[in-house]
Amino acid sequence: MTTLRHIAVLGAAGEGVEGVVGELADLTGASVSVAQARRARRADLLVLDAASLPTSGPLPDALANVAERPVLVVPEGGWESPVRPHLLVGIQDEDRVAQGATRLARALGGRLTLVHVVDEFSTDLAAALDRGWLKLASAVRLVDSGIPVSAKVLIGDPADELLAAAEESNTDFIVVGARSDARAAGDGASMAARLLDEPSRPVLVLPA
Q1: Structural domain tally of the chain?
Q2: Gap between the Cα atoms of 152 and 167, Å rounded
Q3: What is the reported pTM?
């Protein structure tokens, strides 16, 4: 994610989307427009209402996997973010996720929690945990020194553990990469697509 200068709202915007977009614009000074997907390529951030996603079919997974711009999916009821929002960031293998989350946290004056999830069925769990901490250490080094950041490794299903961590910490935004650990998500669906299924809080999906 580059500097947040322009936000494009895709499709119909309910009160929830309007509220979140208004807060983002107030915090960053970004301009806002309503646009069709093909006309929103110059936007720094695309925003859409989770209610506009179909309850079945390939769109959520396709959206999570081929988005050319960061996409923020807002829950149907909206989300009231505090002055200094908390971003929970799923770190699997992509440095770009840490970089994108850092830019958003800088723009919003927020703080980060970086999370790596280890498969509970790993053949060598101790080694997998060590690799997880090394990935997080690498990601933490990409975060600006002025941004509060913490990190933790969890064990289990990536999507389930991120959702549980978000609920436990009352996270304001979940940030993941478009192709985050697709194999571990199960049934061929990416972790990002699973997080977009009836989200309870805004989910930011960064392009692959």
Answers
A1: 2
A2: 15
A3: 0.80
